[in-house]
């Protein structure tokens, strides 16, 4: 039975396994080969960074960027895939070392906005309206490093510049509280939606919730999703999992906390997410121990867990939920949920 959801992942989710403490442990998979794997693994859409779509984007003219993006569009078409979104990868460039939009150096801020405009051009060519902003290095290692009030205004300037440059794009902010910075600006979906309301075109700014990012902020991902949905602002999700407060683990969906995963699916079901036409994105990493020939199982596994949880949500006895709520017997409701998940 089809669940009605459409799925995406990012090419970085098939990786060589390097971490901050050791080198790669698997050979690189060519981009074209990654694209070929999408359908095989049951996915329809590709989450893209600007320099995935246009490699070595720096130094290319706007015209060349559009030409190269058109070539990528053909590659996607050939595989029967679409681009879900394009995200400016500001955090790998030396000019983004102090953040792009919020850098103290005005030349770096100009660069970041220019690059983001190119990202919007690429989105046009790839046929998607959505730009994702993960504000990776827009924050500080020490609070004294920046004027945080000014920094938030710089973020607004950057978003307004993108909205003005391209009247079609919609910007989904992907909040994350920390890593790579000690503290990030816009650490939660509440901040993201509030910032969107402060822009010149609030209707074109929304959010993307990543499970691990909510958890790292000490928040519940399903409630974060619910908040965004209540505001009509849940424009994508990055489902994964996270075992406690540490680095961003990007574990397979449901692998650390199946109950929390169930609740994320439940909220997407409550909000009729498939009807919105938006994608269920995964942002998951294979374990570093995984051998090369099986280093994509985490993607198919995460999708399979999602679909099984959709069945669990749909088959939960609604009458029991109603009775337990009416009698305010949440112990009974909890046991009914656990029985259901355990297969009793
Ligand atoms: C970092 C992330 C990012 C974003 C990606 C697209 C590298 O924690 O989640 O993945 O998802 O940049 O916005
Ligand atoms: Mg993500």
Describe the structure.
This protein has 344 residues and is an alpha/beta fold. The chain has a single domain, classed as Divalent-metal-dependent TIM barrel enzymes (TIM Barrel, Alpha-Beta Barrel). Helices cover 44% and strands 12% of the residues. It is built from 12 helices and 10 strands. The strands form 2 sheets. Strands 3-2-1-10-9-8-6-4 form an 8-stranded parallel sheet. A two-stranded antiparallel ribbon has the order 5-7. β9, α9 and β10 form a beta-alpha-beta unit. α9 packs across α10. The longest helix is centred in the middle third of the chain and has 21 residues. It is globular and about 60 Å long. The two termini are 22 Å apart. The protein binds 3-O-methylfructose in linear form (3MF) and magnesium ion. The site of magnesium ion has 4 residues, from loops.
A few lines on this structure:
The protein is of the alpha/beta class and 344 residues long.
List its traits:
single chain, 344 residues, alpha/beta, TIM Barrel, 8-stranded parallel β-sheet, two-stranded antiparallel sheet, 12 helices, binds 3-O-methylfructose in linear form, binds magnesium ion
């Amino acid at each position: 039975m089809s669940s009605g959801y459409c799925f995406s992942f990012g090419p970085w989710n098939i990786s060589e396994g390097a971490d901050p403490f050791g080198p790669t442990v698997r050979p690189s998979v060519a981009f074209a080969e990654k694209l070929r794997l999408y359908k095989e693994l049951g996915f329809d859409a590709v989450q893209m960074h600007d320099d995935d779509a246009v490699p070595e984007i720096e130094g290319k003219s706007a015209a060349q960027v559009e030409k190269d993006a058109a070539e990528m569009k053909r590659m996607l078409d050939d595989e029967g895939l679409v681009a879900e979104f394009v995200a400016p990868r500001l955090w790998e460039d030396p000019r983004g070392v102090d953040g792009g939009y919020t850098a103290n150096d005005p030349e770096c801020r100009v660069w970041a906005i220019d690059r983001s405009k190119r990202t919007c051009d690429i989105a046009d060519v790839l046929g998607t309206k959505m730009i994702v902003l993960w504000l990776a290095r827009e924050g500080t290692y020490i609070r004294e490093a920046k004027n945080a009030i000014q920094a938030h205004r710089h973020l607004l300037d950057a978003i307004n510049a993108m909205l003005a440059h391209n009247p079609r794009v919609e910007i989904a902010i992907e909040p994350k509280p920390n890593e790579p910075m000690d503290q990030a600006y816009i650490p939660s979906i509440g901040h993201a939606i509030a910032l969107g309301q402060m822009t010149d075109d609030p209707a074109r700014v929304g959010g993307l919730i990543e499970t691990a990012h909510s958890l790292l902020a000490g928040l519940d991902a399903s409630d974060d999703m619910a908040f965004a949905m209540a505001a009509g602002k849940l424009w994508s999700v990055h489902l994964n999992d996270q075992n406690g407060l540490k680095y961003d683990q990007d574990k397979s969906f449901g692998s650390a906390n199946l109950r929390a995963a169930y609740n994320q699916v439940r909220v997407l079901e409550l909000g009729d997410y498939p009807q919105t036409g938006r994608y269920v994105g995964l942002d998951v990493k294979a374990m570093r121990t995984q051998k090369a020939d099986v280093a994509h199982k985490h993607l198919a596994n995460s999708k399979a867990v999602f679909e099984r949880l959709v069945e669990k949500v749909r088959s939960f006895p609604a009458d029991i939920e109603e009775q337990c709520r009416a009698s305010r017997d949440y112990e009974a409701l909890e046991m009914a949920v656990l029985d259901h998940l355990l297969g009793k």
